[in-house]
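Note to self: keep these together.
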Amino acid sequence: MSLRERKKAKTRAAIRKATYRLAAEQGWDAATTERIAEAAEVSPSTVVRYFPVREDILLTAENDEELEARLRARPAGEEPLASLRAVVLEAVRAALAEEPEETRLRARLMAEIPAVRARLTETTAVTGRRLAGAIADRTGRDADDLEVRVFTAAALGALREAAVYWAEHDGADDLVDLLDRAVDALRGGPALPARP
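Structure:
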């Protein structure tokens, strides 16, 4: 990265770190743009320039480009759902290893704060459109193909719901296992109970 890009990344990281600290210590409502700016030692206008919507500090995925590249790099003959499962689980494992507390807090806020959950739906749609292009290329279909769009949206929706479930249950289960189960549920739906 250039010096300018490194400086921007450092500023984004400082804003994120300040936001997580404020939200963890005092709650999401206390993490106002002004207080985030003060804690990150930047101006409120800098916070808004980097994150026009406050919830994006939690949700904006700088790794969408990396997810797409990893999805495109999966073996050509691999089933699309298996490819998507592999890249998402790898990203979540990395997030849990690198930022376990931030990952837990982000999931908790997604589950508890309606504005965060609503914004998550919007950002997931953006991610979905990006990944749909990779799925389309892998399957020889158009990115705007209905089946490609439905598949990608359903997969990301299932993964999002698994993360919310994890947060609602205080992170008691293994998140990677829950995400894996969510993908399995897409494949076959919930199993019917055994008949007496």
